[in-house]
């Protein structure tokens, strides 16, 4: 069961509890599932009971107790444990990691993209999301990246700036907006990050965009040569290097005569570096949704660093060593590596940054 399928399963449990008269609530549009936090257990956790407690007029733990039997009875779920004020910690059958990898490979770089609700994303229901920014290079780059991420979640977006972007902004960083001039009559979403203290154009497209997008909007970005160095101290280098390594592994595996096939990566696929990596990949759709909701490309940029940092210790284990012959475990590890590549390529694309196959 994938995170998307599990979210649907949680919503089905809520509907069944409502139909049975055990909960008197309006069924929300979606249920967020994510890796368990501190004190949690299992494969995934959801705070849906805390979300429903107030409208249901019941303590959140009681709501969780109502939902638990419906979840335990669902196909693919082996156990549900209540923790804290009402978190539902869900354990899945052993195929969960393989299912996640298969889903990522099926969608490729579009993994985590949502069709969105028919009414759009967030409070702009039923309307085009209008992003408006001042005539400032960082503001234009952030607005454009936020628009890409919103569109990935199914929203209709229009970007505008108080004046047309400078020609060198477009030539170097590829920035564009849909319209220029005063803010539209309909209340727009103002995009006003802290301006950059120096001109980032000398860094080029990829490093320049990363320098402006990686910090949170309220943080002043650093515009220096640290974004150009090809070392592990540079987060952008780690992300792009991890992607390039996944592509190299696919080429090397083809030379050895085997291809990717999702499955257990080892005897203990839930442990160690593979477990950490699977958690980061499973969290990708949630991060994209949050980045869209808050118009915060920095959330996606930092998540890509998390994925890359979890992947780099794992990637050396993918290929057979010495006289070892390719096995099912190697094919599964290659599938996981290719899933990493898909997530990194898709995320960098949304930020307007290239994901090279060779680095």
TrEMBL record:
This is arginine--tRNA ligase. The keyword Ligase applies. It comes from Streptomyces thinghirensis. It catalyses: tRNA(Arg) + L-arginine + ATP = L-arginyl-tRNA(Arg) + AMP + diphosphate. The lineage of its organism: Bacteria, Bacillati, Actinomycetota, Actinomycetes, Kitasatosporales. It is an enzyme of class 6 (ligase). InterPro entries: Arg-tRNA-ligase, Arg-tRNA-synth_N, Arg-tRNA-synth_N_sf, DALR_anticod-bd, tRNAsynth_Ia_anticodon-bd. Its EC number is 6.1.1.19. Residues 8-92 form the Arginyl tRNA synthetase N-terminal domain. Keywords: ATP-binding, Ligase, Nucleotide-binding. It holds the Pfam family Arg_tRNA_synt_N. Residues 239-359 form the DALR anticodon binding domain.
């Amino acid at each position: 069961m994938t995170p998307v399928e599990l979210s649907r399963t949680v919503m089905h449990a809520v509907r069944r509890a409502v139909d049975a008269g055990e909960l008197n609530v309006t069924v929300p549009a979606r249920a967020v599932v994510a890796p368990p936090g501190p004190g949690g257990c299992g494969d995934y956790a959801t705070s849906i009971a805390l979300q429903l407690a107030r409208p249901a007029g019941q303590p959140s733990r009681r709501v969780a107790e109502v939902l638990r039997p419906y979840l335990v009875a669902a196909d693919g779920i082996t156990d549900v444990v209540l923790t804290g004020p009402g978190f539902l910690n869900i354990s899945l059958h052993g195929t969960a990691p393989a299912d996640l990898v298969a889903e990522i490979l099926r969608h490729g770089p579009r993994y985590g993209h949502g069709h969105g609700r028919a009414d759009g994303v967030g409070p702009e229901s039923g309307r085009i999301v209008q992003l408006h920014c001042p005539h400032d290079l960082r503001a234009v780059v952030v607005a454009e990246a936020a628009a890409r991420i919103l569109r990935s979640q199914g929203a209709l977006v229009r970007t505008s700036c108080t004046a047309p972007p400078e020609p060198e902004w477009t030539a170097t960083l590829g920035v564009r907006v849909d319209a220029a001039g005063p803010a539209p009559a309909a209340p727009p979403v103002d995009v006003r990050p802290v301006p950059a203290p120096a001109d980032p154009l000398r860094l080029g497209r990829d490093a320049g965009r990363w320098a402006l997008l990686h910090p949170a909007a309220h943080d002043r970005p650093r515009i220096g040569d640290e974004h150009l160095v090809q070392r592990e101290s540079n987060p952008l280098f780690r992300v792009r290097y991890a992607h390039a390594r996944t592509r190299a592994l696919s080429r090397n595996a083809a030379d050895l005569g085997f291809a990717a096939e999702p499955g257990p990566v080892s005897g203990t696929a839930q442990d160690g570096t593979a477990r950490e990596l699977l958690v980061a990949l499973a969290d990708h759709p949630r991060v994209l949704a949050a980045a869209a909701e808050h118009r915060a490309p920095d959330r996606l940029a930092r998540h890509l660093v998390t994925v890359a940092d979890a992947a780099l210790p794992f990637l050396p284990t993918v290929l057979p060593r010495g006289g070892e012959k390719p096995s099912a475990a190697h094919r599964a590890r290659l599938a996981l590596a290719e899933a990493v590549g898909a997530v990194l390529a898709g995320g960098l694309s949304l930020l307007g940054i290239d994901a090279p196959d060779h680095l």
